[in-house]
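Chapter review. Work through the record for Pectate lyase before attempting the end-of-chapter questions.
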Amino acid sequence: MLRRRFIALLAGVFTAVLAGSVGGVRAAASDDIQVMADTADGYASVSALGINGTTGGAAGPTVTVTTSAQLAQYAGANTPYTILISGRIQVSGMVRVVANKSILGVGATAEITGGGLVLGSTTRPGNNVIIRNIAFRNASDDSVSVHNGAHHVWIDHNDFYPAYDGSVDVKHKSTFVTVSWNRFHGTDKSMLLGHSDTHTADIGYLKVTYHHNLFDGSTQRHPRVRFGDPVHVYNNYYRGVGSYGVASTENAGVLVEANYFEDTAFPCHSASGYAESAPGRLVQRGNAFVRSGACETGGTVGEPSAYYSYRADSAASVPSLVTAGAGVGKI
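Structure tokens for Pectate lyase:
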């Protein structure tokens, strides 16, 4: 975190010297460099399916949008774009995002309210997409929906407030996704992975990494998994979770590693299934349980390290790291 901020600070100083006092409709270039300082990790970093990691709209121009019409125009364009969101944008329904886009909030005030982002369609894929540094509020459906076979998606450093349905849903043969350093504020159906018990077409897909997210008074689905294998849930902070933390069902394989569960009565469901769903497989290691129940486990799960390199922080360090680093305005 410190190294990242130091690099961003140097970049901002350098850009400010070049930019001088020149004004314009675009955001200051220092903000652009700051939000682009990192690269995707976890499954989103894997070279597969014709994509060498997740780069978003880096190959295209950068534009700043301040209205829903502008956001829809550039998010739905057939060419790469880095799209900067400045301030609050009120949208209606779901804005469609197609391949090769970076949608990045400027500073600490970027917000999408009233609707959400849906990646791809049956005819135009939502592959190679980055969504960072945006607050999502009052979505009329999902805040972010990754579906229709979208792959290589990085959802990072956002704030999610309650939506009508899910906050971040991944389904319909989507895969190679990383959800990292986000903050979920009292959300209900926080993160669904896998459309339904009968949608067996998801088998072999749904490879998702969830790390360093803060679930702050949220209720359920952190995540709720069907079929995905191996799914990696590590270094997340579960604080005052109302119903349950992680559910592995329908023969999914989930590794729950070095998370911190605090005041969470049911950290994990797996061997007994959940609701109408059949049991899944779940392995837990190195987690901390504070005023919380036990993590239900069962079966074996493949190692995510077969796909990508990572270093898990100790569970004890998770509350301080994640509280300080998750959400908007922290990159």
